[in-house]
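Hi R.,

Here's the chain you asked about this morning:
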Amino acid sequence: MSQEKLGSALGLTFQQVQKYERGANKVGASRLYEMSRVLNVPIGFFFDDLISGTHERSIAALGGGFAEPPPTFFKGDDADEAAPETGAPMLDDMSLELLRAFQHVSDARVRQHLVNLVKSMAAPA
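And the predicted structure, written out as tokens:
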């Protein structure tokens, strides 16, 4: 799909799409959602390269947000192990496997049910 067609489908000019592509402008969550809808790909498609090719990544490398990561995602049971480059807690293999599978669930309701299920099964912090 050309930048012009994508821009038209999103209500943008192709120059605005170019700025997103070059990284001159940041893409907000709602715009990212619209792009995934127009391109008919899951939102996780835009993040696939963040996890591939390595067994461990830090939560910061996965684009952590304002909330602190839940302790169940730390490697092992303590937060002392951290990525040397960021100081962020490391994800273990099983957590990465869960994240990879979760990224491929496209139905938002199912994703929310999965989050609720895992939270209900987690030990209280």
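The chain has a mean pLDDT of 74.

Let me know if you need anything else.
M.
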